[in-house]
């Protein structure tokens, strides 16, 4: 079966939270129940094509590939910019992007020695690309044309992830210094917080970061096995999460995204799933599980959600990017 256009293929509506775990402890995956939202599978990009109209969106593995295409051996980060999806592939050291069906693709021209690690969309018109080793951030338009440097090198020691605030400021995690920074365009640091540790506003390898609709900031504190919520000036507010193998626990959190209704999506590379929480840390529902079918994952990494509820997932182990669509259930509208 091939899909040559986007379409509703599958819907996942499981709830993954219970206040009363079984006597032998919580289990993964959680028991399903009614959920406050639906997430529909739209398709998967397995390769980008600079020319032609191919058949990138497939419902089964093993479909014929176009002869001229760029495969994705190790996609780790994604961004949805307008009607295009961009991907960082660390095996290639490339950033590629194309239309939602993978066609009309471009490969960004990056400086020598630039190691892309994270992407973000600004105002749905501009792609931002961060260098892992220096934290330099470059801007590109939706067609991949360079717009210049947004953040200079050496603002951070080692970039873990980037996010964009509503006013255009950037959020950058420093996975070596265990810090989070808010940076103006041009590189001026407006706020920074963090130190190695497990206390409030301390981090152990922070990675993905995102601004919520209410202006607060959520940081994936990967090896403290939690998410921390910070204020607009990066002041500590709250946290949730713990290490474990049960409902609502975290094992290897990689990506974070927030849908238009404020639900928090966290990809976990060991659970091979995406858990969805409210801001109080209550687990609402899950998406996925180990596999290569629609809505299944193998070591998922970066997430990106646009204002229309479309979410791209770097499905790293399956060597593809999946596109999902968030929608409220009828009884929640």
Structure commentary:
By secondary structure, the chain is mostly beta strands. It has no helices and 27 strands. The protein has strands spanning 10-12, 37-45, 47-48, 70-71, 75-81, 84-89, 94-99, 106-107, 116-122, 126-131, 137-141, 146-151, 159-164, 170-174, 179-183, 189-193, 206-211, 217-221, 226-230, 236-240, 253-258, 264-268, 273-277, 283-288, 300-305, 310-315, 320-328. Strand 17 and strand 18 (217-221) form a beta hairpin. It is globular. The model is unreliable at 1-10, 12-33 and 53-67 (pLDDT under 50).
Strand fraction equals 35-45%
Most strands sheet: 5 strands, antiparallel
- The strand order across the widest sheet is 1-2-27-26-25
Strand tally is 27
- Summarize model confidence as the mean pLDDT: 86
What Rg do the Cα atoms give?
19 Å
What can be said about this structure in brief?
With 333 residues, the chain is mainly β. It has strands at 10-12, 37-45, 47-48, 70-71, 75-81, 84-89, 94-99, 106-107, 116-122, 126-131, 137-141, 146-151, 159-164, 170-174, 179-183, 189-193, 206-211, 217-221, 226-230, 236-240, 253-258, 264-268, 273-277, 283-288, 300-305, 310-315, 320-328.
SSE map:
Elements: E1 10-12, E2 37-45, E3 47-48, E4 70-71, E5 75-81, E6 84-89, E7 94-99, E8 106-107, E9 116-122, E10 126-131, E11 137-141, E12 146-151, E13 159-164, E14 170-174, E15 179-183, E16 189-193, E17 206-211, E18 217-221, E19 226-230, E20 236-240, E21 253-258, E22 264-268, E23 273-277, E24 283-288, E25 300-305, E26 310-315, E27 320-328
List the defining traits of the structure above:
single chain; 333 residues; mainly beta; five-stranded antiparallel sheet; four-stranded antiparallel sheet; 44% strand; globular; disordered N terminus
């Amino acid at each position: 079966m091939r899909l040559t256009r986007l379409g509703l293929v599958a819907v996942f509506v499981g709830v993954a939270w219970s206040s009363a775990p079984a006597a032998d402890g919580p289990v993964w995956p959680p028991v399903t129940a009614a959920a406050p939202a639906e997430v529909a599978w739209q398709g998967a990009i397995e390769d980008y094509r600079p020319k032609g109209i191919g058949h990138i969106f497939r419902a089964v593995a093993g479909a014929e590939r176009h002869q001229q295409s760029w495969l994705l051996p190790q996609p780790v980060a994604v961004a949805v910019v307008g009607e295009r999806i961009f991907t960082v592939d660390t095996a290639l050291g490339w950033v590629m992007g194309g239309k939602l069906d993978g066609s009309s693709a471009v490969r960004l021209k990056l400086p020598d020695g630039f190691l892309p690690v994270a992407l973000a969309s600004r105002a749905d018109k501009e792609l931002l690309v961060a260098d892992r080793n220096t934290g330099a951030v470059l801007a590109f338009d939706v067609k991949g044309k360079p717009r210049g440097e947004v953040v200079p090198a050496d603002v951070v020691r080692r970039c873990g992830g980037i996010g964009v605030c509503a006013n255009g400021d950037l959020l950058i995690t420093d996975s070596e210094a265990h810090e989070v920074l808010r940076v103006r365009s041009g590189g001026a640091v407006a706020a920074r917080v963090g130190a190695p540790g497990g206390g409030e506003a301390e981090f152990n390898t922070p990675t993905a970061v995102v601004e919520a609709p209410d202006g607060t900031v959520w940081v994936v504190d990967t090896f403290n096995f939690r998410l921390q919520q910070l204020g607009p000036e990066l002041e500590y507010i709250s946290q949730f999460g713990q290490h474990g193998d049960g409902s609502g626990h975290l094992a290897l959190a990689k990506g974070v995204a927030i849908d238009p209704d404020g639900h928090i999506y966290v990809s976990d590379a060991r659970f091979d799933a995406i858990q969805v929480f409210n801001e109080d840390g209550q687990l609402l529902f899950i998406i996925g599980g180990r596999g290569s079918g629609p809505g299944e994952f193998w070591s998922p990494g970066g997430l990106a959600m646009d204002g229309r509820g479309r979410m791209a997932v770097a499905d790293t182990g399956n060597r593809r990017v999946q596109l999902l669509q968030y929608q409220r259930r009828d009884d929640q509208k």
